[in-house]
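User: I'll paste a sequence; please echo it back and then give the predicted structure.

Assistant: Echoing your sequence first, then the prediction.
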Amino acid sequence: MKRALPPLNALRAFEATGRLGSIKEAAEELHVTHGAVSQQIRLLEEWLGAALFERQHRRVVLTPAARAYLEEIGPSFDQISRATAKYGLVKPVARTLRVNALATFTLRWLVPRLGMFRDAHPGIDVKVETSNEPLESLEENWDVIIRGGPDTFYGYVMRPFLSEDRIPVCSPALLQRKPLAVPDDLRAHTLLHTSSLPRLWPDWLAKARVSLLEPTASLTFDHFYLTLQAALDGVGVAMGPTALVADDLAAGRLVTPFAGPPLPSRSYCTYVPEAKFQDELVALFCAWLEREGARRQKGAA
């Protein structure tokens, strides 16, 4: 019996677009133009006699019928790929994992560890973009988004992987010049602030039961990583996130002048689109993040 098969190039364009949630990303994966993918999708829609996507600004969303269709045909593409690789008929191609993460977290925690992930998984290319935008404001279709939490967002699976507190930190050289025996000694120092986190010092001072503290000077930066760099350079005292300054504390580049009190903070979490939660690469990367987070916290204990 003759098979009722739609145009296979059009089907391939549909599968890639539906899986990635983006015509742009599908075009990159298939090594064709954005217009070529759009044309193939229109061809398939004409062949099927039904719309497959709803266009929403720069993203495309599957219709309910198209989602069900993709769930049926998607495993067939995976099976063809596995069979082809099994019989040595294609050279393995590195897959790209797209990650969107907070800037300071990326600079101070993720980047120093990415080499270990690449060494363990050389077949995976990781594309990292930094952003402090709220998750719901992101327009691109990401495999993994790293933000604070835990929060709940419709259509995403959330998993915490790294917790932290905030504590005052400074360079050893600064501490030698101006000792800090008790929190009230901060009056003789410069306090370093971040404009997006204005409550860090007031909240910590309140918890440390220090009232009406007037430091010698205050400096405010627009990015947290600049605030931490100023602390490393001996400019002043910053409120350091324990997860992101752990390496500096271990190496002696920063010190904690007081035993406490720690100021509780939100955890770092992965937010994965539900459509990508079962993806092998996504699961692999998220599991690695959780292992690294647990290892850091065990070392800090």
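DSSP finds ten helices and twelve strands in the chain. Residues 8-86 form a domain with the Arc Repressor Mutant, subunit A fold (CATH 1.10.10.10).
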